[in-house]
Automatic annotation (TrEMBL):
One of its GO terms (molecular function) is polygalacturonate 4-alpha-galacturonosyltransferase activity. The keyword Ubl conjugation does not apply. It comes from Lactuca sativa (Garden lettuce). Gene3D superfamilies: Spore Coat Polysaccharide Biosynthesis Protein SpsA, Chain A (3.90.550.10). InterPro entries: GAUT (IPR029993), Glyco_trans_8 (IPR002495), Nucleotide-diphossugar_trans (IPR029044). It is found in: Golgi apparatus membrane. Its EC number is 2.4.1.-. GO terms for biological process: cell wall organization. This is Hexosyltransferase. GO terms for cellular component: Golgi membrane. It is a single-pass type II membrane protein. Its main location: Golgi.
Length: 536
């Protein structure tokens, strides 16, 4: 939301964000002025008063006769800033101020102390109480205050990133409790060990007249939300087949959950990776690559302590390095999608879903999208109003300073998203996509992770290069785990909302107003949920 003030200072106009069609024009003092608008107006007024004081101080320093009342200052500001003209301070501010502010030599010497103002109020008070107000004193105090606050802000930001990294990398005790209780249920209750699906429904697993979805996850609660939201929003749930792939340790509790919580009439299959005979070390290149990756990454990164101790790198670089250490980037669940043609040799087309999303619409129309011979139907991530999430190109993920990358790819080529993808398995089997994927994984390991540093999307961008069919962004909205700037109207309109990022909806660090989109598909009255103290 933006504030616009007319040059006459008589009207305040709030310009709301995208999606609101009308301006809200309010006369100052009108009874129709809402509390929120009044709050913003007061904040702006306080800011103007402070800025006027700084201007007055500069005027005094420069020994010029200037305005002595608010009205005069208002006219000065209105004629300069509010009418879009730049305020030329060069003619009013002594050169010594610029010399001190631009001097880099003293910045490292600044430490917190009683003489340095800790806030704007203290700065103003120190200027008022100064016996001799000169330009040099003004500049030194101002620089000291700003530099100190910058250092503190940087430290606080890095600590925030570290805490978020720790929170997102660990397993909440409630989820661990749920897994243990379901494992116990699996061992003691025959009803929790049902074959999924039931024998009479097994033929549907290879029947291409059904809509087949694949979910790879070792998170039982997250998988249940994806499955429930998928079936609940389907117009024809009897045509939905969901194949859930998990690891060995999660198979028993995952089977117990879906045995005790059937989503009829949809068909649910639960299968572990060890049930695929060919998925074993020595037969699957990605397993060896993951093992090497873990060793190199541990040596290359030096641990989270070494990362946050770096005083030269910018906070967003430190955040990226911490993110690269996340266990999910070395999880086999992240690589499962590259083996879909082998896992489902009888299927022609599947929709692959990540476990950190929520389905909000019927997804059967995805199977009717014309793929034009392409393999991967995906939403592009270089277009849209959200510049943080939807501004991704190949250069955002790949290191174009490396010749192997720069000579093979275009840095400005639009990237696309994992998380909700249509895969034409028939077309895939005619390509060398999987082989390319393994080749580039190995090349990155040989280069000590210098081609890219984290995730399965970079090798995916490479392997599926030239095989991507762009689909409407309505089908897949991203970034709900990174930021909370998206309007609820936009979020609720999307077919699938994806909590990619650290703020997963099952964590305490999730954004509250977005988390409710996920919790609506959790039955908090369920005995397993209640016994593990999982609450809305």
């Amino acid at each position: 939301m933006q504030l616009h003030i007319s040059p006459s200072l008589r009207h305040v106009t709030l310009l709301p964000g995208k999606g609101v069609r009308e301006f809200i024009k309010v006369k100052v003092g009108s009874r129709r002025l809402s509390y929120k608008i009044l709050f913003y107006s007061l904040l702006l007024f306080i800011f103007l008063l402070r800025f006027i004081y700084v201007l007055s101080t500069v005027d005094t320093i420069d020994d010029e006769t200037k305005c002595s009342n608010i009205g005069c200052k208002g006219e000065k500001l209105a004629s300069g800033v509010l009418r879009g003209r730049s305020l030329r301070l060069n003619s009013a501010v002594p050169e010594v101020i610029y010399e001190i502010l631009e001097d880099q030599s003293s910045e490292d010497e600044i430490v917190g102390g009683p003489d340095i103002p800790q806030s704007l109020e203290e700065f103003v008070d120190s200027m008022k109480g100064s016996k001799r107000l000169d330009a040099k004193t003004f500049a030194i105090k101002l620089k000291s205050m700003v530099t100190l606050l910058e250092k503190r802000t940087r430290t606080a930001k890095i600590q925030e990133y570290l805490y978020r990294h720790v929170a997102s990398s660990s397993i909440p005790k409630q989820l661990h409790c749920l897994s243990l209780r379901l494992a116990h249920e699996h061992a003691t209750n025959a009803n929790s060990r049902l074959q999924l699906p039931l024998p009479e429904l097994v033929p549907t697993l290879v029947n291409n007249s059904y809509f087949h979805f694949v979910l790879a996850s070792d998170n039982i609660l997250a998988a249940s939300v994806v499955a429930t939201s998928l079936v609940y929003n389907s117009l024809r749930p009897e045509t939905v087949v969901l194949h859930i792939i998990t690891d060995r340790k999660t198979f028993a509790p995952m089977q117990a959950w879906f045995s005790l919580h059937p989503l009829s009439p949809a068909v649910i299959e639960v299968k572990a990776l060890h049930h695929f005979d060919w998925f074993a070390k020595g037969k699957v290149p990605v397993l060896e690559a993951m093992e090497k990756d873990q060793k190199i990454r541990a040596q290359f990164r030096g641990g989270s302590s070494a990362i946050v101790a770096n005083n030269t790198e910018k906070p967003y670089v430190i955040a990226a390095k911490l993110q690269a250490m996340s266990p999910k980037y070395n999880s086999v669940m992240n690589h499962v999608r590259i083996y879909l043609p082998q896992m489902f040799p009888s299927l022609n087309k599947v929709v692959f879903l990540d476990d950190d999303l929520v389905v909000q619409s019927d997804l059967s129309p995805l199977f009717e999208i014309e793929m034009n011979g392409k393999v991967n139907g995906a939403v592009e991530t270089c277009h849209g109003g959200d510049k943080f999430v939807m501004s991704k190109r190949f250069k955002s993920y790949l290191n174009f300073s490396h010749p192997l990358i720069s000579k093979n790819f275009d840095a400005n080529e639009c990237a696309w998203a994992y998380g909700m993808n249509i895969f034409d398995l028939e077309a895939w089997r005619k390509t060398n996509i999987s082989e390319n994927y393994h080749y580039w994984l190995e090349e990155n390991l040989k280069s000590d992770l210098s081609l890219w540093q984290l995730g399965t999307l970079p090798p995916g961008l490479i392997a599926f290069h030239g095989h991507v069919q762009v689909i409407d962004p309505f089908w897949h909205m991203l970034g709900l785990g990174y930021q909370e700037n998206s309007t609820m109207a936009d979020v609720e309109r999307a077919a699938v909302v994806h909590f990619n990022g650290r703020a997963k909806p099952w964590l305490d660090i999730a954004f509250p107003q977005l988390r409710k989109l996920w919790t609506k598909y959790v039955d908090f009255s369920d005995k397993f949920i209640k016994s593990c103290h999982i609450r809305p």
